[in-house]
Design a protein that fits this description.
The protein has seven helices and four strands. The chain has 187 residues and is of the alpha+beta class. It has two domains: 99 residues, Alpha-Beta Plaits; 55 residues, no CATH class. About 4% of the residues have low confidence.
Length: 187
């Protein structure tokens, strides 16, 4: 995998405010994003009215291709002539060989990563799963073997009586109790 990163310094002489500068930058970034499959962001000189630095990134599996794409992006920005380009830098980075050696993952590398089955056995649930418990009960009633082994219970959670199903409102209330409170909910 190759990542080509480019940085362009723009001079915006007609800009009299940060708002005018952002309009120019928005025009450039929107056009680059629409035409090329690249990431674009303002990275430096955020508080200067008449100067801006934009960074672009292109990812691909061929070094020559990502380099050509970056050259096209830089030429496109210059051809727009919304703001004169005063400087440009380009660097291509290689990823992959350092991470996995021969390009293959070993099974030993993934041995320390807990699997989803281990997380479920420990009773850990995501918020989406917890909110869907009521619906899960309705959908999977027929699949249940009636032995109480439908799904693991969270550690320390109260078990409901075996004949009583969890309503959707109760499932949502339980999910809210499991997640971290949002800023507006904090006291």
């Amino acid at each position: 995998m190759f990542v080509c990163v480019g940085r362009v310094t723009l001079q915006i002489p007609e800009s009299g405010s940060l708002k005018a500068k952002r309009q120019v930058l928005r025009r450039i970034t929107d056009r680059v994003k629409a035409r090329f499959n690249a990431s674009v962001a303002e990275v430096d000189d955020n508080d200067l009215w008449q100067k801006a630095q934009l960074a672009m990134a292109v990812v691909g599996n061929d070094r020559r291709h990502v380099g050509e794409q970056m050259d096209k992006i830089l030429q496109f920005i210059e051809d727009l002539y919304v703001a004169p380009v005063t400087g440009r830098e380009v660097e291509t980075l290689s990823f992959g060989d350092e991470l996995y050696g021969s390009g293959r993952r070993d099974e030993d590398d993934e041995a320390h990563v807990p699997s989803l089955a281990d997380a479920l056995a420990a009773g850990q649930r995501s918020l989406a799963e917890a909110e869907g418990l009521g619906e899960w009960d309705r959908r999977h009633e027929a699949a249940s073997d009636g032995m109480g082994a439908d799904r693991p219970a969270p550690a320390g959670a109260r078990l409901r009586p075996p004949g009583r199903k969890l309503s959707l409102d109760e499932a949502r209330a339980r999910a809210r109790a499991l997640r971290n409170p949002r800023d507006w909910e904090k006291k």
